[in-house]
Amino acid sequence: MTTKYELKNTQTGKATLLDAMSGTIGPDVINIAPLLKEQGVFTFDPGFMATASTESKITYIDGDAGLLLYRGYPVEQLAEKSTFLEVANLLVYGTLPTKPQLDAFCSSITRHTMINEQLLRFFQGFHHNAHPMAKVAAVVASMAAFYHDSTDINDPRHREIFAHRIIAKLPTIAAAAYKHSLGQPFVYPRNDLRYCTNMLNMFFAVPCEPYAIDPIAAEALDLLFILHADHEQNASTSTVRLAGSTGANPYAAISAGVSALWGPAHGGANEAVLDMLEGIGSAANIDAFLARVKDKHANVRLMGFGHRVYKNFDPRAKIIRGMCYRVLEKLGRTESPLFELALRLEEIALKDEYFVSRKLYPNVDFYSGIIYSALGIPRSMFTVMFAIARTAGWVAHWQEMVSDPHMRIGRPRQLYTGPVKRDYVPIDGR
Ligand code: ACO
C-alpha cells in the first residue's frame, strides 16, 4: 500500500493527501504535484536541499554510507576492473557491454575524435591567456553550428551519434585549448591510441620530436575519468537537463553544463585546492589556516572538503588518494611537498571538532589535482579534465530525459518578495 503524507492548512483545516513514491533504493519522495491545485501553494527549497528534481536510473549515492553506484555497480569495482570507455558505455546504454558491443563503441569513439577544421580555427579568436574552460564552453556551444545531421533530439539514432561525437571530441577540444594557450601547433588525434593515451599525446606531443607516453599516466587519467564520470543530479548535470528540457540543441546543453561545472563550489574545486595548498605553504601553517576557515567572517573554505550529499568519506577520494601514492612513486616523485601537505591537512581536519561536527570529509577533488600536476597537466586545465569525464554522465542524463515521452520543460517557481504592483513615475517626478 502506498504511504500517504497529509499536508494541512492550520488556518482553514483543509488537508491534502500526498503519495509517497518509492525508488529501488534510497528514501521515498513525496509527490507534491497536487499541492498547487488543492492548496494553492508552492514548496520552497532553495538549493534543492530536499527536492528530487527528476526520476533517474543512472547513478545512486548514499551520502551517509559513502556509497556510489553507476547503473547499480559500485564505483570501487568499476575503478578496479573497468575502463573509462566501458563506464561511459554503461552510463549511456544502461548495461555492461559485451565484448563486440564495447569494441564497436570504442571504434566509433576513436573514429569521431577529429573536429571540423573550421572549429579548430575558433581558437585563434581567443586571447592566449583566456581560461581554457571559457574556450571549451564556447567551442562546444559552437558545435551546434556544425554536425546538423545529429541534432534531431526525437530521433534515437541522432541522439546516439551526438553522444558518441561529444564523448569523442571533448579531449580534442580540450587539447586544442591547451595547445593554443602554449602557442604550440595543434596535435591531431591518432586512431592507433586508446582514449586517454591519445589525449596525452594531443596534450604533450610536439612535431619536432617523438613523445613517449607513460603508461602510468594513461592509467591514472583513466581512473580519474571513471571516478568523475557521473554523480547523479549535481549542479552541472541539472544544468544540462534544464537547458536540454527546452528542446535546445544538445551541444548547447552540454556547453551549459561546462559553464556550470567551472565554479569553485563544483568542478573548479580541484584548481582551488592546489592554490590553497600552495598558499598554506607548509605544515607549520596548517593551524593558522584552519583558524581562518573556522572564522565565519574570514570567508575562507577548506577546498576539497565537504559535499552536499556525502556526510561520510567520498568513496572517490579514498581511491584517488591510493592512486596518488602509485603515480608519485612510479614517476619517481616520492617527495611531493604538496601531497605531504594535503595528507597532513586531511589528518588534522578530520580530528577537528569543526569538521567532525559538520561531517565534512575530503571530496573527489581534494587529491585529484595532485595527480594531474604530477602528470604535467597545468592547473588551469584541471576543470577541463573533469569536464571531459563528466561529459559521459551529462550525455547519459540528457539521453534519459529526452527519450522520456513525458519530458516537460524544467520551470521552477519562486517566492516573490519584490514590490507589489505600483504605477510608473515619470523621471522628473522621482
Ligand atoms: N570548509 C569550511 N566549512 C565548510 C566547508 C568547507 N569546505 N564546507 C561546508 N562548510 C560548513 C559551512 O560553513 C556550514 O557551516 P555552518 O553550519 O556553521 O554555517 C556547513 O559546513 C554546511 O555547509 P553548506 O555550505 O551549507 O553545505 P552545502 O551542501 O551547501 O555545500 C559544498 C557543499 C559547496 C561542496 C561545500 O562543502 C564547499 O564549499 N566545499 C568546498 C568546495 C569544494 O570542495 N567543492 C567541490 C565539491 S565536489 C564536486 O563538485 C566535484
Explain how this protein is built.
Strand 2 (15-21) and strand 3 form a beta hairpin. The mean pLDDT is 94. The protein has a 3-stranded antiparallel sheet with strand order 1-2-3. The chain has a 3-stranded antiparallel sheet with strand order 4-5-6. The chain is mainly α. The protein has helices at residues 34-39, 75-81, 84-93, 99-110, 117-122, 132-142, 156-182, 195-204, 215-228, 235-244, 250-261, 269-280, 286-294, 315-330, 337-351, 353-357, 365-374, 382-402; strands at residues 4-8, 15-21, 29-30, 59-62, 67-70, 73-74. It has 18 helices and 6 strands. Helix 9 (215-228) runs antiparallel to helix 14 (315-330). It is globular. Bound molecules: acetyl coenzyme *A. Residues 265-267, 269, 293, 301-308, 358, 360, 363-365 line the site of acetyl coenzyme *A.
Present as ligands are: acetyl coenzyme *A
Number of helices: 18
Q: Mean pLDDT, rounded to whole units? A: 94
Q: Spans with pLDDT under 50 lasting ≥5 residues?
A: none
Fraction in helix = 40-55%
Largest sheet: 3 strands, antiparallel
Percent in strands: 5-15%
Give the strand order, joined by hyphens, for the main sheet. 1-2-3
Structural class: mainly alpha
Distance between the termini: 62 Å
Question: How many individual β-strands?
Answer: 6
Taken from the alpha-carbon principal axes, the silhouette is globular
Order of helices and strands: EEEHEEEHHHHHHHHHHHHHHHHH
